[in-house]
């Protein structure tokens, strides 16, 4: 069994040597993910729509033809071309609002990217765990196969009862079944990575967890990371600024609207050309809009405060969970388990224990090791959730 564990270590080293690291996987997915591309186009469309807010209304052309009943009056025509526009302040305020809201929309794309990269990183962590489980199960299965060969020879020589070989065979069947389930989970994870990568092939064969940065042990630094880099939080802050600007836009839209144009009148033997101008006072159309914008802004401020509070509490809870998992992991002494495997093999060779005792001990140690690996996977995934703003 000691030899088997050396094989596991060698396999892990080989995996790590030829495998992509998680960061390179995330870079590929960021480039190829279809959901992220779709979000980018959607944001672009929304930004273009924002630009239309400052479009001038369509010019108006009016033509009047009048005819008289007497020769002295004659026929008259009137042509009027006018263009309406808001007070210049309104255009300036809407332009500022567009820039702020456009920046908030860009944060939306970043938010989708952070979510997708975290999902991909969690899958990579699971694949690492599955690779380690596979190496462990295969090493134990290989050792059991050797014991099975020894047992069958002893059985043929009349030195071993048949049911002992049967016990070995049943245990091997159990390990093989676990390997099949492990392989199925591995294939599912790779399929999900394939989908996240836009349907393009992506290899990830690492069996070693990456080294975690020291910031993972500093809750204050993790909170600072959230405030500085979380796209959802930054988007809310940008929307707050845009909301303040929207109040100014509502005020500016309460200023008079104007229209200017050209007019031409023609009658019998005479034509007149002139300029048309006028004002529209929004006494009714803009009533209450400033109050609405202020109320929306107050609601948005409270929502931001609530969301930030929930997120910060969530980070603190994740940090506490990380610490609990770390404490639990320290209770598993894997080096001691490896020594125990070696002592168990030696005891079996010297016939100090029976094969049945050996199988019982192996079963218990395997359960402990698989439980430790499951705990390690959960710990790593929790850490990556805390580090999502650095991915």
Q: How would you describe what is shown here?
A:
This protein is of the alpha+beta class and 391 residues long. It has one domain (2-390): Outer membrane efflux proteins (OEP) (Up-down Bundle), CATH 1.20.1600. It has ten helices and four strands, in the order αααββααααββααα. Strands 1-2-3-4 form a four-stranded antiparallel β-sheet, with no helix packed on it. Helix 1 (2-18) packs antiparallel against helix 4 (88-156) and helix 4 runs antiparallel to helix 5 (162-196). It starts with a helix and ends in a 5-residue tail after the last helix.
The string of secondary-structure elements, in order, is HHHEEHHHHEEHHH
Low-confidence stretches: 1-19
What is the percent of helical residues? 55-70%
Number of helices: 10
Offer a quick outline of the entry.
With 391 residues, this protein is of the alpha+beta class.
């Amino acid at each position: 069994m000691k030899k088997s564990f050396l094989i596991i270590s060698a396999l892990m080293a080989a995996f790590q040597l030829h495998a992509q690291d998680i960061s390179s996987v995330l870079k590929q997915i960021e480039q190829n993910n279809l959901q992220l591309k779709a979000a980018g186009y959607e944001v672009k469309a929304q930004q273009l729509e924002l630009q239309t807010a400052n479009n001038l209304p369509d010019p108006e052309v009016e033509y009047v033809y009048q005819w008289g009943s007497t020769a002295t009056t004659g026929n008259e025509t009137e042509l009027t071309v006018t263009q309406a526009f808001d007070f210049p302040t309104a255009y300036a305020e809407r332009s500022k609002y567009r820039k702020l809201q456009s920046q908030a929309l860009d944060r939306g794309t970043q938010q989708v990217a952070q979510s997708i990269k975290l999902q991909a990183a969690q899958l990579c962590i699971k694949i690492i765990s599955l690779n380690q489980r596979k190496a462990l199960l295969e090493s134990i299965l290989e050792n059991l196969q050797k014991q099975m060969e020894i047992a069958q020879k002893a059985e043929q020589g009349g030195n071993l009862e048949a049911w002992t070989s049967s016990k070995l065979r049943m245990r091997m069947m159990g390990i093989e079944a676990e390997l099949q389930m492990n392989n199925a989970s591995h294939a599912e994870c790779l399929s999900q990575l394939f989908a996240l990568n836009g349907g393009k092939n992506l290899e990830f064969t690492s069996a070693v967890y990456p080294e975690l940065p020291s910031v993972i042990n500093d809750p204050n630094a993790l909170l600072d990371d959230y405030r500085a880099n979380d796209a959802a939080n930054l988007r809310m802050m940008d929307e707050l600024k845009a909301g303040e600007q929207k109040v100014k836009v509502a005020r500016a839209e309460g200023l008079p609207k104007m229209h200017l144009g050209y007019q031409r009148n023609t009658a019998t033997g005479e034509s007149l050309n002139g300029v048309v101008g006028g004002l529209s006072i929004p006494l009714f159309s803009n009533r209450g809009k400033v109050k609405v914008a202020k109320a929306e802004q107050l609601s948005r401020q409270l929502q931001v405060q609530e969301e930030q509070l929930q997120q910060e509490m969530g980070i603190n809870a994740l940090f506490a969970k990380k610490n609990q998992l770390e404490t639990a992991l320290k209770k598993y002494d894997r080096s001691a388990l490896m020594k125990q495997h070696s002592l168990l093999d030696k005891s079996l060779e010297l016939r100090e224990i029976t094969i049945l005792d050996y199988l019982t001990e192996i079963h218990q140690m395997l359960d402990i090791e698989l439980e430790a690996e499951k705990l390690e996977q959960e710990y790593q995934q929790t850490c990556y959730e805390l580090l999502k703003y650095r991915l």
